[in-house]
Write a structure and sequence with these properties.
Order of helices and strands: EHHHEEEEEEEHEHEHEHHEHEHE
Strand content: 15-25%
Radius of gyration: 21 Å
Structural class: alpha/beta
Strand order of the largest sheet: 3-4-5-6-9-10-11-12-13-14
Helix content: 25-40%
Bound molecules: S-adenosyl-L-homocysteine
Distance between the termini: 36 Å
């Protein structure tokens, strides 16, 4: 019999589940707190639960834990990257970034990714599988446990496309922000998408307060299509309308992300295109000078060029910043997370 993944049950579901075993409501609440607040990784730790119930839980449920396979600490900034082993032998990476306002974890949503963006390491090798809710939560729980530090922010910007794993992703957001668990404010959670239009529209209806980030990367439909295969499915115009809809429904401004690539999307024509997109929207634009991915060969335009690009946009009245890169020396920066084989070696 395969055991049920107890960490993926939300508060209500767990209470019901434990009730179905003939227990009272508060038992479910206690167990939920052990799993999601107190970081228990075994039923044996749940000392205020009777031995007979613990044995019963042990038989039917598992607390799927993520094993830390590697930990890399950046020498240039207070950033660490973790490689976690999953119960089926797959692995995912997560990044911890410390800021003056708190610490954020960059969570992966899938093993691999099928979106195929040309500049991104996560796309190499395609999609292996979706992550479960407990595997997404587990990345944050384990990092808190390993470092002994409290995580205050989450960015779903690791490997994978969250809107391609929609149900698990949304449940993860609910559980990470639930006061019975991690209790991270939804306003401190950002999720990034490559632009899956039906997913953005559906997300707009969920009543969440998270920030949506859109990976834009092209200043026109043609340019975007040359960098991101997903743009062939969803036209830029449609994507922008979906972002407007997200803003309309949630009152949360969308952030646009733009990886600056030398000779590909850093010309004056791109400044013009971006201005036309952003001016009427007043959304924020985040420039990310492209990070090196050895198989990809795209060139970073350099900080001077990036600065000029930013200045030109600013002059046009665009709300723009250059994202300070973190963890590039440990391949922990945007677009550098990738699948690895169980040996821990980089996938070739
Ligand atoms: N699938 C989602 C989540 C990934 S978030 C998405 O596409 O948005 C990671 C961010 O880093 C995305 O904006 C992605 O486009 C960007 N990125 C990917 N490769 C990069 C690279 N080599 N340099 C800089 N940013 C990159």
């Amino acid at each position: 019999m395969t055991k049920k993944d107890i960490v993926s049950y939300d508060h209500e579901e767990l209470i019901q589940e434990i009730k179905d075993l003939g227990e009272r409501d508060y038992r479910g609440k206690q167990i939920y707190a052990w799993l999601h607040k107190r970081g228990a990784r075994s039923f044996a730790e749940m000392t205020d639960i009777s031995k007979s119930l613990r044995d019963r839980l042990e038989e039917e449920y598992e607390i799927a834990a993520l094993d830390m396979a590697a930990r890399q600490i950046s020498k240039t900034d207070p950033t660490e990257k973790f490689l976690f082993g999953l119960s089926d032998g797959n692995q995912v990476e997560s990044v911890l970034m410390r800021h003056p306002y708190g610490s954020s974890v960059c969570v992966s949503s899938q093993v691999g990714c099928r979106m195929g963006c040309r500049f991104c390491a996560s796309a190499i090798g395609g999609l292996v599988r979706d992550l479960t809710v407990s595997e997404m939560l587990g990345q944050v729980y384990q990092i808190q446990k390993i470092t002994g530090e409290r995580v205050s922010h989450i960015v779903v910007m690791g490997t994978g496309e969250p809107l391609d794993n929609y149900d698990n992703f949304v449940k993860f957001i609910h559980m990470a922000s639930d006061k019975h668990g991690l209790n991270i404010s939804q306003r401190n959670i950002t999720a990034s998408t490559c632009g899956i239009v039906p997913g953005i529209r559906r997300l707009a209806e969920e009543g969440l307060q998270i920030t949506l980030a859109l990976s834009l990367h092209g200043s026109s439909q043609e340019k975007r299509k040359s960098l991101m295969p997903v743009a062939a499915r969803y036209d830029l115009e449609e994507v922008l309308e979906a972002c407007d809809y997200y803003f309309e429904k949630t009152g949360r401004r969308v952030t646009f992300e733009y990886s600056l690539i030398a000779g590909a999307n850093d010309s004056d024509e791109d400044v013009k295109g971006l201005t036309a997109i952003l001016k009427p929207r007043k959304f924020h634009l985040n420039l990310i000078p492209v990070n090196p991915v050895k198989e990809r060969g795209f060139q970073n335009p350099g900080s001077k060029k990036a600065q000029e690009f930013e200045n030109k946009l600013e002059k046009n009245g665009i709300n723009v910043t250059i994202r300070r890169e973190r963890g590039a020396d440990i391949d922990g920066a945007c677009g550098q997370l990738r699948r690895r084989y169980a040996s821990g070696k980089e996938e070739k």
